[in-house]
Amino acid sequence: xxxxxxxxxxxxxxxxxxxxxxxxxxxxxxxxxxxxxxxxxxxxxxxxxxxxxxxxxxxxxxxxxxxxxxxxxxxxxxxxxxxxxxxxxxxxxxxxxxxxxxxxxxxxxxxxxxxxxxxxxxxxxxxxxxxxxxxxxxxxxxxxxxxxxxxxxxxxxxxxxxxxxxxxxxxxxxxxxxxxxxxxxxxxxxxxxxxxxxxxxxxxxxxxxxxxxxxxxxxxxxxxxxxxxxxxxxxxxxxxxxxxxxxxxxxxxxxxxxxxxxxxxxxxxxxxxxxxxxxxxxxxxxxxxxxxxxxxxxxxxxxxxxxxxxxxxxxxxxxxxxxxxxxxxxxxxxxxxxxxxxxxxxxxxxxxxxxxxxxxxxxxxxxxxxxxxxxxxxxxxxxxxxxxxxxxxxxxxxxxxxxxxxxxxxxxxxxxxxxxxxxxxxxxxxxxxxxxxxxxxxxxxxxxxxxxxxxxxxxxxxxxxxxxxxxxxxxxxxxxx
Length: 481
Hints:
The chain is of the alpha+beta class. It has helices at about 10-50, 55-70, 80-90, 100-110, 140-155, 205-215, 250-255, 260-280, 305-310, 320-335, 370-385, 455-480; strands spanning about 120-125, 130-135, 160-170, 175-180, 195, 220-225, 245-250, 320, 335-340, 345-350, 355, 365, 405-415, 420-430, 435-445.
């Protein structure tokens, strides 16, 4: 054994001193190592905070905690603020937010709850919770229609059996108004049902097909024999005699002359062309919208006379809904583009979460812009000198209507039982010095006594809608001034 000193006591003290120093070194070195390792890790942690996107911060915290607690074997506490943020981001008991698809919305929106809504916001009770639907309805126009319908129901003479009124923005497809009633079925939505005979509304399709495939214009000369509103096989020949009447295509359209359009369809177009353009307008097609409605339906056979009946609308097998009628008018004013109707702005759940947002407007090309412009000319002739002239008499002197370009097509045909006479108007109005437009369709099912006609309702709707629009614009301009 080595002695530290010759003095026994001094040697013992020296030995104890060295022993304590060595013991401290053994304790200090591991602590120093841990301190340095912790410092390096902390610096890396702070760098990671500065360079990590906020969306990945929670994952970074998890990774660092795992490294510190399992790999390095150091129990480093995670700041409480970080843990609280993570807990709030992923609540343990919060229900999962479910977004609705357009098919879900179609199933949710039964047509019966959409008609005659007095407010643009509708509450729907689903299987497990309520849904709050914000629609595109114009409160002012919708309120006017509901008010008029309530008055109609009180009539003893002239009260219609059925009536449906639809208005839409022809460029966006948004439904502005939807109102009506059916005395036989109070729960039905007469605006979305497609069992009405299309009557002469189908002449829109026939005229467009003739313009686009035969080179017709509104001024193309045509002729017919016999009555304007009849259709016999003998009227489909090109016989010319002293009883022959000469007209233009625009006049035949405006006055809804059946023999002219019967001849165009049977001897000029043929079934293939007529079927092609009817399909382009949406007949026999399903329409993918956020609410369900019937489109248009037609049937063609090998019979030349049946083709003539379809071409002029003088049959009861071609049917449309008022909603589809508004689509036809929209296609004409929208430069030949068929808009996709929509009625929902957004849907929220009971917690205020937006679970559905209305789709962006989409269109499908039906006809060329040039063909659409020719149809606009013919539809304007219907209001000026055709079958709707009485309803729009004096419009050129009206402070509101005189500022609009207006056009339309009328139609009239009884049901199969001849107990209801259906009266149609589908058309459009567009400000002359702007782009604001409205397309609409009105069908009135008259009973024994003929009441207010469809074209008259159309005039009322045009005037009210644009009167409100012009007044709003004037107020806005005055505030800016």
